[in-house]
TrEMBL record:
An individual GO BP term: methylation
Keywords linked to the UniProt accession: Methyltransferase, Transferase
Lineage: Bacteria, Bacillati, Actinomycetota, Actinomycetes, Kitasatosporales
UniProt cross-references to InterPro entries, sorted A to Z: SAM-dependent_MTases_sf, SAM_dep_MeTrfase_SAV2177_type
Gene3D superfamilies named among the record's database cross-references: Vaccinia Virus protein VP39
A molecular function GO annotation: methyltransferase activity
Name of this protein: SAM-dependent methyltransferase
Signal peptide annotation: none
Length: 269
């Protein structure tokens, strides 16, 4: 076996896992935020949903901006130096590590996703400053203890960690299961850690129709939830002001638009 054969075999295995016949949420979202890593099937459902509910494009873009403001706040004002980002999605501009290390070059970030296309791009694009570290785990949200165990190779769980789960929990059909997964992940993090969540919400007929159209496309379903269900993920945590709000209203730099997506940041006592 030559020096490069294991890498080529791994790349072939990743390519074999990529299904281009059905839309995929990471590629679909990448299309909406202006990325380049998507296929015709993703663009077709994306354009169809734009016709049904153009506001979903705003949800995708403003949710990305929420990530930037939340990470900047945590790294800057709260001194957080460790981030566990589950449901990473495809790398675009201002990924978690880029925002965090812009504020704190020594920040350490672990990304978690189980999409083969995300994995293929993560290896090339999720880099780090010399002072910090960035790692990628090909792992599953449904196995929180295994995720935490693997993240220990990069993160020090004796110190606070910011757990980021953005636009991901909607893939968990049962709300009680989604809450359980979040609780198990937070249970493995020390006092002073933070939880950051944002998700699309069932706050307009347009968003509900867009969700139904996406779920009918053959993609892995995404379920929009009520605002009080998003708030329920933060039970037992200390909410950072302004609490659970539309992502555009969370510490905005300017007046934000109305969108069907809510988010919050909470601190573990």
């Amino acid at each position: 076996m030559t020096e490069h054969e294991p890498e080529l075999a791994a790349a072939a295995e990743i390519r074999a896992r990529i299904d281009t016949d059905k839309p995929h949420s990471a590629r679909f979202w990448n299309y909406f935020v202006g990325g380049k890593d998507h296929y015709e099937v993703d663009r077709e459902i994306g354009d169809h949903i734009k016709e049904i509910f153009p506001g979903l494009v705003d949800v995708a873009r403003t949710s990305r901006h929420f990530l930037g403001r939340a990470v900047t706040h945590l790294a800057g004002e709260q001194g957080i130096r460790q981030f566990l980002d589950i449901g990473t999605g495809l790398p675009t501009a201002d990924n978690t590590h880029e925002v965090a290390q812009r504020v704190a070059p020594d920040a350490r970030i672990v990304y978690v996703d189980n999409d083969p296309l995300v994995l293929a791009h993560a290896r090339a694009l999720l880099t780090s400053t010399p002072e910090g570290e960035t790692a990628y785990l090909d792992a599953n949200l449904y196995e929180p203890e295994a995720v935490l165990k693997a993240a220990e190779h990069t993160l020090d769980f004796s110190k606070p960690v910011a757990l980021m789960i953005l636009n991901t929990l909607g893939h968990v059909a049962e709300y009680d299961q989604a809450r359980d997964l979040v609780s198990r992940l937070m249970a493995g993090l020390p006092s002073g850690s933070y939880l950051v969540i944002s998700d699309s919400t069932a706050t307009s007929e347009g968003m509900i129709a867009a969700s139904d159209a996406y779920n009918a496309s053959g993609a892995v379903p995404y379920y929009v939830r009520a605002v009080d269900e998003i708030a329920g993920f933060f039970d037992g945590l200390e909410l950072v002001e302004p609490g659970v709000v539309q992502v555009t209203q969370w510490r905005p730099e300017a007046a934000g638009s109305v969108v069907d997506a809510y988010g919050a940041v909470g601190r573990k006592p």
